[in-house]
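Thread: sanity check for a docking pose with nicotinamide-adenine-dinucleotide

Original post by kr_44:
Hi all, I'm comparing my docking run against an independent structure prediction. Below are the sequence and the ligand SMILES. Could someone generate the full complex and paste the structure tokens? I mainly care about where the ligand ends up relative to the chain.
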Amino acid sequence: MKRVLVTGGAGFIGSNLVARMLKERDHYEVVVLDSLSYSANLENLAPFEDDPRYSFIRADVGDDAAVTEAVKGCDGVLHLAAESHVDRSIMDPAPFVASNTVGTQRLLEAWRRGPGADGLPLVYVSTDEVYGSLSLDNPDERFTESSPLEPNSAYSASKAGGDLFARAYHHTFGLNVMTTRCSNNFGPFQFPEKVIPLFVTNLIEGEKVPLYGDGKNVRDWIHVDDHAEGIIATLEKGRPGEVYNLGADNERSNLELTHAILEILGHGEEMIKYVPDRLGHDRRYAIDSSKAASDLGWKAQWSAWPGALESTVAWYKDNEAWWRSVKSGAYRDYYAKQYGGR
Ligand SMILES: NC(=O)c1ccc[n+]([C@@H]2O[C@H](COP(=O)([O-])OP(=O)(O)OC[C@H]3O[C@@H](n4cnc5c(N)ncnc54)[C@H](O)[C@@H]3O)[C@@H](O)[C@H]2O)c1
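Reply from moderator J.T.:
Ran it for you. Here is the predicted complex with nicotinamide-adenine-dinucleotide included:
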């Protein structure tokens, strides 16, 4: 039995990851550490409340005393806790630096002073956004793990700060740190400020979908189960100090994605509301995941289009109570500020 600390485990990717670790494997005991920020939802973890292999600690990754206590007795750490939404980082970058850069350094330090001193692994879950943007003119170009870090948003800059500390803690202290850089995720339990659940739930509510700029920005979409398996594969088979790109070779422009969602839900073009582009909006992300395939034996298997999108849309249709409770209160204020109301 391996006891693994999962930071950010009450968020979208974290809760899907915890579910895979507890349901698909019997050799993990999971301790979730999460500050329960606006995007967290303990309901996602409710099925495991009585599972003796699951426990929960409410704490900030920057809280030295709490994290030092939490890492005791752990055999590994999967570090996902972060402020995760680019639009919010444009509104206010400061919490991003605190959680994503400083919080990561604090966790690395606690691990170094704790079980990490015995060579036990910590996986830092980063993002392909640290590489910056590719142009639309060169469709064959992809980021590899040795591409330079050229983050363009406060979100990606703060995540890149975490990447650099992960690298430094390996290089300087010999900490067994590995980093994953994954592309855009979709699937169940995603906070509806992100484009897929935002568009799907708006359409179910009879609202238009706010599409940024010309809609030509391209993202490589990966199902959250594929990302979770990539993180677990990194923990189990990754080499200390290495970085692994995780992507699904599933590039779609935002306009293509919007049309696909409209079609699945039986709506037409008239439900698109074009809104001014996001400031500094990265044009295209695409990554080469061949290193994860060769070194970890990992490959995306649940991200195939349009099936994976259809099953995700079906999940939001079947789980209205989950997102309706999320899309209220402070969320409405955020939405009005971001998109100028309904
Ligand atoms: N969503 C994507 O497409 C994507 C792609 C690649 C990488 N990632 C990375 O995966 C991780 C999880 O992303 P997500 O989409 O699940 O985000 P999310 O916003 O749904 O979840 C983040 C979780 O972290 C917690 N958290 C935030 N700050 C914290 C802090 N200081 N201390 C403790 N807990 C804190 C939140 O309460 C929340 O439960 C992030 O590190 C993100 O950068 C996300």
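The pocket of nicotinamide-adenine-dinucleotide is lined by residues 7-8, 10-14, 34-37, 39-40, 60-62, 80-84, 99, 103, 125, 127, 159, 182, 184-185, 191 (CB under 6 Å). Hope that helps with the comparison, let us know if your pose agrees.
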